[in-house]
Amino acid sequence: MKAISVLGSTGSIGTQTLEIVKEFPDQFKVVALTAGRNLPLLVKQIQQHHPEVVALADESLLPELKGHLNNLPIEERPTKSPQLTGGPDGLNTAAAWASADLVVTGIVGCAGLLPTLAAIRAGKDLALANKETLIAAGPVVLPELKRSGSRLLPADSEHSAIFQCLQGTPWAETARLSTGVPTPGLRRIQLTASGGAFRDWSAADLGKSTVNDATSHPNWSMGRKITVDSATLMNKGLEVIEAHYLFGLDYEHIEIVIHPQSIIHSMIELTDSSVLAQLGWPDMKLPILYCMSWPHRQETPWRRLNLTEVGELSFRSPDTTKYPCMELAYSAGRSGGTMPAVLNAANEEAVSQFLEEKIHFLDIPKSIEIACEKHKDDLQQNPSLDDILLVDKWARESVREQVKKNY
Ligand code: NDP
């Protein structure tokens, strides 16, 4: 029985993780949950999973959460009341909870950074979905992993695919953990991309796109922020940096290929030119489950892949003019140091302004480019955690100022 903590339990990753726990009650149990503001769903999760601790990002909502739990009919109350906590310290407490074996990081954005570090410092293994944490703070997170011995298991479907392929290489013993150290025998990574909401739109038509268009993903059902990131292809750019930190390859050897069917979740090329791929229906439960059961394979009754049903697998190169975010990400990754943190924070802020309809879709890459350009002279190559938190704050403010000036 593995004890699981779920950070961001009310989100897309969090709810899918809890569905897995529910489906395999002999294998997994929940010991800690954290959420942002969705109290009704959190209450249901507490009733269902009986966690030992629950943390709310917004501490001021704690009395309301207590009220909800106290008002439940006696027969519907959890048998043992969880410890309730909140705010940044509360999230860290839940992330570092002693009885947890694995922490699933499903918080969206750089808000996940401090809880992730708390889990690492407590020596917990992590199922990393919250990619923004590694992208913003790779230079801080990787040494912390080394110090604590925590294992970083990638839950992002592309990185899970790479990770799964690496298990099948002769170097598996050294390659199977993601430590940022160059993976022996690995020559090239090809990250597949569905192409997002606008894959079949012409570049000229993007000027007419709305929030509704950008949040309708053709293949995956995910939270709003990552769905917009998929529409700009910034998600793939962020994944390039994530792959660099996880698998230690330089940026020249991490490529993006558009694969509209989302059946091949990514590929690796080995030094003998052999290419390995991992395939499956587009369903995040599979990579999440693999993190939860690793190094074992859990038997499931899930829908099995039928390639004759898929019919065709196609591939093309991404259009870098239509999707400037990819190049911005490569460039920030190559600059290294604090630049990926600026790219990430500017993107988070720009996406949030877009979702609030304060800027247009096409303004997202422009805002990020301006923030990265402004940061060039202040770039720090070996940043501390404080440096990263400072540039994160600065980049968000910088985007907000641009928006105020232009609208
Ligand atoms: P969602 O928006 O669906 O969920 C986000 C979760 O984080 C919710 O539980 C939310 O709480 C919580 N949250 C929001 N803001 C804060 C905050 N400031 N502090 C603490 N908790 C907060 O996101 P997703 O599940 O889609 O994505 C989560 C992460 O996983 C992202 O980093 C994303 O890139 C990554 N990922 C997601 C995939 C997917 O299929 N969804 C695929 C691959 C990676 P509440 O809702 O209660 O306010």
Beta-strand fraction estimate = 5-15%
Structural class comes to alpha/beta
Major sheet: size, sense and barrel closure?
7 strands, parallel
**Helix share of residues?**
40-55%
Distance between the termini: 54 Å
Shape: globular
Average pLDDT value? 94
| Radius of gyration from the alpha-carbon trace, in angstroms | 21 Å
Q: How many strand elements?
A: 11
Low-pLDDT runs of 5+ residues are none
Give, in spatial order, the strands making up the sheet with the most strands.
4-3-2-1-5-6-7
Description:
The chain is of the alpha/beta class and 407 residues long. It contains 17 helices and eleven strands. The protein has helices at 12-23, 39-49, 62-70, 87-95, 113-121, 131-148, 157-167, 172-175, 211-214, 224-232, 234-247, 285-293, 307-310, 324-335, 339-355, 363-375, 385-406, and strands spanning 2-7, 28-35, 53-56, 83-86, 102-105, 125-128, 152-154, 186-193, 254-258, 264-270, 275-279. The strands form two sheets. Strands 4-3-2-1-5-6-7 form a seven-stranded parallel sheet, with helices on both faces. Strands 9-8-10-11 form a four-stranded mixed sheet, covered by helices on one side. Strand 1, helix 1 and strand 2 (28-35) form a beta-alpha-beta unit. It is globular, with a radius of gyration of 21 Å. The structure holds NADPH dihydro-nicotinamide-adenine-dinucleotide phosphate. NADPH dihydro-nicotinamide-adenine-dinucleotide phosphate is lined by residues 8-14, 35-38, 57, 106-108, 111, 129-132, 156, 220, 222-223, 225-226, 284. NADPH dihydro-nicotinamide-adenine-dinucleotide phosphate binds at residues 8-14, 35-38, 57, 106-108, 111, 129-132, 156, 220, 222-223, 225-226, 284.
